[in-house]
Amino acid sequence: MSVPNPQQPELPPLSATDFRIYNQLADKMEYFHTMLRHSWDIQWTAATSGRRPQGMSIRQFIAEGLRFASHLETHHAIEEQHIFPHLARKMPEFRVGRGKNNAELLRQHKLIHAGLDGFREYLERCLSGEEDLQMDVLRGKMETWKDVLWTHLDQEVRTLGAENMRRYWAKEEIGGIPF
């Protein structure tokens, strides 16, 4: 739900058709985020229960974790290189700045990747045989960035939602946003 901004006038309700047009980026982002959440949940459930999913070997489990890391890194790279710069033309939520002037969603990316790097490096060491996979260690590698990841996934979809998008973009412009 959007919070009223006294600097912006109250907008009339959207028709169902206009809502679908303005909400299409949020819908697409939610699709990708659902896949990322599912992959995270496989790793997190095992790390917190101490047991891999039934029928999944250690190598398969580690490979699944590395796939998750790769998918998240690729997803963020596409956002930062193609989608966010376009959105930043009109939306401060996506503007690059220095330090605290960097958009919150971009600051979240940095925090996520700080934890993701440790997660990926640990799984790579386990895959190579340098370390044995220990679920409590994996959990520790995930706990440091769990909250910021889940906050980010939800916040990004809300930011791309119809009520926010229509404050910045004409209906005809939505289709021209790279996604």
From TrEMBL:
Pfam family, one: Hemerythrin
Regions annotated as coiled coil: none
Every Hemerythrin-like domain range: 54-157
PANTHER family xrefs: EXPRESSED PROTEIN, HEMERYTHRIN-LIKE DOMAIN-CONTAINING PROTEIN
Protein name according to UniProt: Hemerythrin-like domain-containing protein
